[in-house]
């Protein structure tokens, strides 16, 4: 049985924040429990840790919160699910 092709329903939005603040990015996908999901900052894969909170709300809304951002966090955020991507 093939898994359904998960697509991005609502993509990322560009954000402007002050240094030291937290920022949250959201991306909604078409199916619950999507696998093969990845968050990146400047082509570096992000892991769930004390600085990056990665979670899923209501099964379809994937969120990334960057805590206490610094100048080093400036750049492109990439959300990928399967072969679909969204950037901000």
UniProtKB/TrEMBL annotation:
Segments forming domain Ig-like: 4-88
SUPFAM superfamilies: Immunoglobulin
Subcellular location: Cytoplasm
Pfam family, one: I-set
Record keywords: Cytoplasm, Disulfide bond, Phosphoprotein
Keyword Glycosyltransferase: no
One Gene Ontology term, aspect cellular component: cytoplasm
Xref: Gene3D superfamilies: Immunoglobulins
InterPro entries: Ig-like_dom, Ig-like_dom_sf, Ig-like_fold, Ig_I-set, Obscurin/Obscurin-like_Reg
Annotated protein name in UniProt: OBSCN protein
Native species: Halcyon senegalensis
Encoding gene per record: Obscn_3
């Amino acid at each position: 049985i093939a898994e359904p092709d998960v697509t991005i329903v609502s993509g990322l939005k560009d954000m402007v924040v002050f240094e030291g603040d937290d920022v949250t990015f959201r991306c909604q996908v078409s199916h619950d429990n999507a696998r093969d999901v990845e968050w990146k900052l400047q082509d570096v894969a992000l892991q769930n840790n004390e600085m990056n909170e990665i979670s899923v709300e209501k099964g379809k809304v994937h969120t990334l919160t960057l805590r206490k951002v610094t100048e080093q966090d400036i750049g492109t955020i990439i959300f990928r699910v399967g072969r679909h991507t969204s950037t901000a």
